[in-house]
Every structure is written in structure tokens, then in C-alpha cells.
């Protein structure tokens, strides 16, 4: 049985890999938008961890809610509680993520903060591994692996 970290790592590489494949497989007219989406996602992921540590989970999610494009994908990824397994946020949707976090009691809020940081850490690692490569080599490696991430 895989651990939470193993599930989160696999999930992160799958989701970030899908964003990267959308960029690498895009035709010339859509490539710029897909690249911007990847860049926005990476910026949002990298900012989220620091924002959680600096301001708390609720304030960090408020910042994430104001962002567009790639941040929307990140909110969807955080809301996928089947994989992230964030306590108190079971069956949450991207739309009600912020309000559900604000409704948590103090103990559950603290636990949700730690668990969210773990999910964000894996998403950041996946961004670092996939977004720093050229589209052609990343797409080839992702297709070879069959799970959407480069070796």
C-alpha cells in the first residue's frame, strides 16, 4: 500500500505533467497561452508554500483565489481531496475551498495547513522537474514513462 507521500508524488507528476504536455503538444497558435498557463501555475505553486508559512493557510488561499489562469488549475489540484487527503477538506470543490478552510476549528486548521504544505511541496518538485526542460525532451520522457513525468 503506497504512503501519502507516494500518492502525492504520483499525483503531482501526473497533474503537472498534463499541464506540460498541453504546452508541448499545442499548435503554434495555442502554444503561447499554454506556456503562460504553465508559468502562472509554477509561480502560484512556488508562492503558495511561502505564503502559507508567512501568513497562514487562509490568507494564502485568499491570495490564490485572486490569481487567474494557472492558479485555477492549482486550486483544482488542492481541492482533489482523494489524493491530497487534507483533513477537514473532504469532498471540497475548487469553488468552496476557501470558505471550507475558514470554517475549520483550530486543531483541524493546523493539521490542514501542514498537509497542504506537503501537497504543495510535491507540486513544486514536479514543476521544478518538468518545467525546467525543453518541451520536446519532456514530452518524449513523459510519454516513455507513461505517467506524465520525466525520469
Summarize the structure.
The chain is mainly α. It has one domain (4-134): AF1862-like domain (Peroxidase, domain 1). It has helices at residues 4-24, 28-55, 57-66, 70-79, 81-84, 97-102, 106-131, 135-145.
Explain this structure:
The chain has 151 residues and is mainly α. The chain has a single domain (4-134), classed as Orthogonal Bundle (Peroxidase, domain 1). The chain contains eight helices and no strands. The chain has helices at residues 4-24, 28-55, 57-66, 70-79, 81-84, 97-102, 106-131, 135-145. The longest helix is centred in the N-terminal third of the chain and has 28 residues, at 28-55. It is globular and about 50 Å long. The two termini are 22 Å apart. The mean pLDDT is 83.
Q: Topology of this protein?
A:
Blueprint: H1 4-24, H2 28-55, H3 57-66, H4 70-79, H5 81-84, H6 97-102, H7 106-131, H8 135-145
Helix pairs in contact: 1-2, 1-7, 1-8, 2-3, 2-4, 2-7
Beta-strand content bin: under 5%
Overall SS class? mainly alpha
Distance between the termini: 22 Å
H and E order: HHHHHHHH
Q: Which fold name fills CATH's third level, the topology?
A: Peroxidase, domain 1
The top level CATH class name: Mainly Alpha
CATH H-tier superfamily: AF1862-like domain
Number of domains: 1
Rg measurement, Å: 15 Å
CATH architecture classification name: Orthogonal Bundle
| Number of separate strands | 0
| Biggest beta-sheet profile | none
Q: Counting H and I runs of at least 4 residues, what is the number of helices? A: 8
Shape: globular
Average pLDDT metric: 83
Uncertain regions: pLDDT < 50 for 5+ in a row?
A: none
| Helical residues, percent | over 70%
Amino acid at each position: 500500500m503506497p504512503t501519502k507521500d507516494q500518492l502525492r508524488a504520483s499525483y503531482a507528476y501526473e497533474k503537472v505533467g498534463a499541464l506540460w504536455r498541453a504546452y508541448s503538444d499545442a499548435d503554434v497558435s495555442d502554444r503561447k497561452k499554454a506556456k503562460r498557463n504553465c508559468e502562472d501555475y509554477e509561480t502560484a505553486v512556488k508562492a503558495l508554500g511561502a505564503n502559507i508559512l508567512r501568513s497562514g493557510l487562509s490568507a494564502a488561499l485568499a491570495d490564490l483565489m485572486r490569481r487567474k489562469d494557472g492558479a485555477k488549475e492549482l486550486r483544482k489540484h488542492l481541492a482533489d481531496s482523494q489524493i491530497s487527503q487534507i483533513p477537514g477538506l473532504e469532498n471540497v470543490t475548487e469553488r468552496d475551498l476557501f470558505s471550507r478552510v475558514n470554517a475549520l476549528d483550530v486543531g483541524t486548521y493546523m493539521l490542514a495547513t501542514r498537509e497542504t504544505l506537503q501537497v504543495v511541496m510535491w507540486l513544486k518538485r514536479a514543476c521544478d522537474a518538468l518545467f525546467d526542460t525543453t518541451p520536446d525532451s519532456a514530452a518524449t520522457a513523459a510519454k516513455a514513462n507513461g505517467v506524465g513525468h520525466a525520469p
